[in-house]
Amino acid sequence: MSEVRFGILGCANIARKVARAIALAPNATLYAIASRSIQKAEKFAAENSLPASVRVYGSYDEVVEDSGVDAVYLPLPTSLHVRWAVTAASKKKHVLVEKPAALDVAELDRILEACESNGVQFMDGAMWLHHPRTAHMEHLLSDSNSNGIGTVHFIHSTSTMPTTQEFLENNIRVKPELDALGALGDLAWYCIGASLWAKGYKLPTTVTALPDTTRNAGGVTLSISASLQWDQPNKTVANIHCSFLSHTSMDLAICGSNGSINLKDFIIPYKETSAKFDFTFGAKFVDLHIGWNVRPEEVHVDNKLPQEALMVQEFARLVASIKDCGSQPSRNWPEISRKTQLVVDAVKKSLDLGCKPVVL
Questions:
Q1: Helices (H), the chain
Q2: What would the pLDDT profile of 139-183 be if each residue is shown by its tens digit?
Q3: Residue 51 belongs to domain with CATH number
Q4: pLDDT of res. 143
Q5: Which residues of 294-328 are buried (b: 16+ CB within 10 A; e: fewer)?
Q6: Residue closest to 140 by CA, chosen among 152, 127, 156, 128
Q7: Are 177 and 264 members of one domain?
Q8: What gap in Å lies between CA 293 and CA 282, rounded to an integer?
Q9: Is the Cβ–Cβ distance between 274 and 260 less than 8 Å?
Q10: What is the domain count for the chain?
């Protein structure tokens, strides 16, 4: 199938990572970049040693109007996602958008409706879902796997990062007019997504924000904890904690009736070319409770491409299938984004209600 030509709208720091991923993906090429000024775009191209063939524009409109662009990647502030995702989709450009996908589900629905009505693919930038480690763990979560962890009862996840005073005063992610969700959108998107993934994307019954939330003067969330509860088909609790005020952590623990999965780097693996997780099966305490009968198995998973390149490769595969074979856009990725956004909205609503439970 044909190579998919990407245009990048915006020169945010994450765009450097995805530009590299596009270069590494075997079925994609970087065709154009744009910033709000030609000077910023040219600086980005020079600092990242982009090929001379890459078109450099001083406005986002020029990228979405370029007939050579098949797909756009949007590393823009969340407040701009609706405008540019809808505009791109109306020009028949496929849309890869940085997370959080939108400020709320109403905004996301506008994006998804534009993509669906124009027959273009949508995906958000949750890169960890594309790592082969994730597929390996998913096999252990399968109900049909008698050697897996069994029925999921408890999920714990964190996404925290240390920041500076400069970040807390001036970063886009703490500005209410740019990214009003703060840590709830930037970090909790991962933890909520991981909890939904572990539950086969069944929505929780209730969502409750916990009282330890910290907000800045503009009302943007800097640190938040929340609890998600499922009543069906079995009772499950997921606790998440996300913060711009803590040391770096990316923990994920999933405990089931027969075993557990634990990892400390579920969002960004410690190494680019391999990742691991601990799998414990059938653990019990020995006599007198002075030890365990088994030790966790350390499972290693190698990958030829970094997870962001695997994300680009999968997105480009879907786009090429639509372009070259007349396939329909995959509904899987929009559905995952929408369910994640619904839970983000519920956490925010619970917080606004004084940490009362919100029923989904």
A1: 13-24, 38-47, 60-65, 81-90, 105-117, 132-141, 165-170, 183-186, 188-198, 307-325, 332-352
A2: 999 888 889 999 999 999 999 999 999 999 999 999 999 999 999
A3: 3.40.50.720
A4: 84
A5: eebeebebebebbbbbbbbbbbbbbbbbbbeeeee
A6: 152
A7: yes
A8: 9
A9: no
A10: 2
Instruction: Please report whether residue 64 resides in a domain.
Output: yes
Do residues 140 and 246 both lie within one domain? Answer: yes
Q: Could you tell me the sign of the dihedral formed by the alpha carbons of 262, 266, 269, 274, in that order? A: positive
- Is position 26 within any domain? yes
- Are residues 185 and 302 both part of a single domain? yes
pLDDT digits (tens, 9 = 90+) for 25-78: 999 999 999 999 999 999 999 999 999 999 999 999 999 999 999 999 999 999
Task: Kindly state whether residue 336 falls inside one of the protein's structural domains.
Answer: no
- Choose among 129, 144, 150: nearest CA to 192: 129
Does a structural domain hold residue 335? no
CB 55 within 8 A of CB 66: yes
- What is the secondary structure of 26-58 as a DSSP string? TTEEEEEEE-SSHHHHHHHHHHTT--TTSEEES
Question: 204 and 347: one domain?
Answer: yes
pLDDT(303) > 90? yes
Give SS3 for 335: helix
What is the reported pLDDT for 233?
79
**Structural contact between residues 170 and 216, judged by C-beta atoms closer than 8 angstroms:** no
- Nearest Cα residue to 105 out of 175, 18, 12, 192: 192
Query: Residue 158 belongs to what domain range?
Result: 129-307+341-359
Q: In angstroms, what CA-CA distances link 196 with 136, 251, 353?
A: 17, 15, 23
Confidence of residue 1 (pLDDT cuts 50, 70, 90): confident
Cα 241 to Cα 187: distance, rounded to the nearest angstrom: 9
pTM over 0.90: yes
